[in-house]
Write a structure and sequence with these properties.
Layout lengths: L2 H35 L3 E2 L13 E2 L2 H36 L4 H53 L11 H11 L4 H5 L6 H11 L11 H5 L17 H6 L5 H12 L1 H15 L8 E5 L22 H15 L3 E5 L2 H8 L18 E4 L1 H10 L3 H5 L3 E5 L5 H4 L1 H6 L16 E3 L8 E2 L9 H8 L6 H5 L8
Parallel strand pairs: 3-4, 3-5, 5-6, 6-7, 7-8
Antiparallel strand pairs: 1-2
Helix pairs in contact: 1-3, 2-3, 4-6, 9-11
Subcellular location: Golgi apparatus membrane
GO cellular component, one term: Golgi membrane
GO biological process, one term: protein N-linked glycosylation
Length: 470
């Protein structure tokens, strides 16, 4: 093959290489645009505090600058390729002066290629201008929206929320007094105060520019489950835990009375028949066994210490479990906080989630602990609490205002509960409910009480007054 044919073969491949080069440039440009502009307009990023309002345009000036540089680079490439093409064309025309047809075929793709490269450069320049306009418009809109929101972050004068302005003043002065406020997003700004006081607490009206869908959407209630009598108490023994002498004593008593509890469940099931009973979720918090209360009972269990309270609590747990309810048992403050959903801090804020329990059985130690760590949720859910009270609390001591006015304030009173929420060990306070303990053998007097329907938790075991546990 002569040298002329070799040159012609080489020259016919050059346009294809040019096309590959152009496609590469176009693909690179497309990838760059997708990467640099794909995340430009983001109103919110994952991990931002729910109380931080921002509409950001990330990297706007940088993207505009890079687009301009790309446009300039393409223009420079056009000029250089045009110069090279002219030099190559003049050289080839001298070499192939005798072949006019070949020269025309050689020049036609080069001319079209230059036009296409110029069009690409113009398109990139147009894109840069449009991006610049969009970014400027977005920044202007963001500044207007932010200015409007700042204007709305003022305590409103709404007669439906008379305490709002006072609570905002309190938050200004003391929002750092408890870490729980920062946990809920309070950062010292007026907006964060109002968002907290309207969405976490309920002292201020909702802000109109806030998304109220999440705040108003209440969790769906769990489907009702039927309570089924249980006769095997092995799982209850696991729920009661271990590590304390008092718990060991309570578990021994429960295990020893398993047969009696099974018999009681069988008799009560026969009495009630097919009556539906909703399974309740119940938290049993034995406050006097927590380390925070001193737990003075556990070290004395094997030394002749008082065992009445532990007998009562063991029988309460057994009765609730045999009746088929869902139980959670806590004997430490940390377990209590975890089960209630207490936010981190000193207990000034409400619970993070709705209370998952239908009832809470506790004592005065546990009552004090819940009030200290539940914030406003304590008042919200106090009707679900049942207080195991050895000797009972009469209404004069329970009503805070009356007790204060008449000098009846004590360490165990003024809780403002319904007197029936106090459950006594001995039935000598008629305003309270009765929650005794199980007698393994009945004497004649107890049999007469059961027969007359006047017995207490003996009725739980033998089927009387079952409506209390439905």
């Amino acid at each position: 093959m002569d040298s002329r044919c070799q040159k012609g073969y080489h020259l016919r491949l050059s346009p294809r290489l040019y096309w590959l080069f152009v496609l590469g440039i176009g693909f690179f440009t497309l990838c760059f645009l997708m990467t640099s502009l794909g995340g430009q307009f983001s109103a919110r990023r994952l991990g931002d505090s729910p109380f931080t309002i921002r509409t950001e345009v990330m990297g706007g000036p940088e993207s505009r600058g890079i687009l301009r540089k790309m446009s300039d680079l393409l223009e420079l490439m056009v000029k250089r390729m045009d110069t090279l093409a002219r030099l190559e064309n003049s050289s080839e025309l001298h070499r192939a002066a005798g072949d006019a047809h070949f020269a025309a075929d050689r020049l036609s793709p080069g001319a079209g290629l230059m036009e296409r490269i110029q069009a690409i450069a113009q398109n990139v320049s147009d894109i840069a201008v449009k991006v610049d306009q969009i970014l400027r418009h977005s920044l202007l809109l963001h500044s207007k929206v932010s200015e409007g929101r700042r204007d709305q972050c003022e305590a409103p004068s709404d007669p439906k929320f008379p305490d709002c302005s006072g609570k905002v003043e309190w938050m200004r002065a003391r929002w750092t007094s408890d870490p729980c406020y920062a946990f809920f997003g309070v950062d010292g700004t007026e907006c964060s105060f109002l968002i907290y006081l309207s969405e976490v607490e309920w002292f201020c009206p909702p802000l109109p520019w806030r998304n109220q869908t999440a705040a108003q959407t209440a969790p769906k209630p769990l489907p009702k489950v039927q309570a089924v009598f249980r006769s095997n108490l092995s799982h209850l023994l696991e729920l009661m835990g271990s590590g304390k002498e008092s718990l060991i004593f309570m578990k021994k008593r429960t295990k020893r009375l398993t047969a009696q509890w099974a018999l009681a469940a069988q008799r009560l099931a026969q009495k009630l028949g097919d009556i539906w009973r909703d399974q309740k979720q119940i938290l049993v918090h034995i406050g006097f066994l927590t380390e925070e209360s001193g737990d003075v009972f556990s070290p004395r269990v094997l030394k002749g210490g008082p065992l009445g309270e532990m007998v009562q609590w063991a029988d309460i747990l057994a009765a609730l479990y045999v009746l088929g309810h869902g139980l959670r048992v806590t004997v430490s403050l940390k377990e209590l906080q975890s089960n209630l959903g207490v936010p981190p801090g000193r207990g000034s804020c409400p619970l993070t989630t709705p209370l998952p329990f239908d009832l809470i059985y506790t004592d005065y130690h546990g009552l004090q602990q819940m009030k200290q760590h539940m914030g406003l949720s304590f008042k919200k859910y106090r009707c679900r609490i049942r207080v195991i009270d050895t000797f009972g609390t009469e209404p004069a001591y329970n009503h805070e205002e009356y007790a204060t006015l008449h000098g009846y304030r004590t360490n165990w009173g003024y809780w403002n509960l319904n007197p029936k929420q106090f459950m006594t060990m001995f039935p000598h306070t008629p305003d309270n409910s009765f929650m005794g303990f199980v007698s393994e053998e009945l004497n004649e007097t107890e049999k007469q009480l059961i027969k007359g329907g006047k017995a207490s938790n003996m009725a739980v075991v033998y089927g009387k007054e079952a409506s209390i546990w439905k």
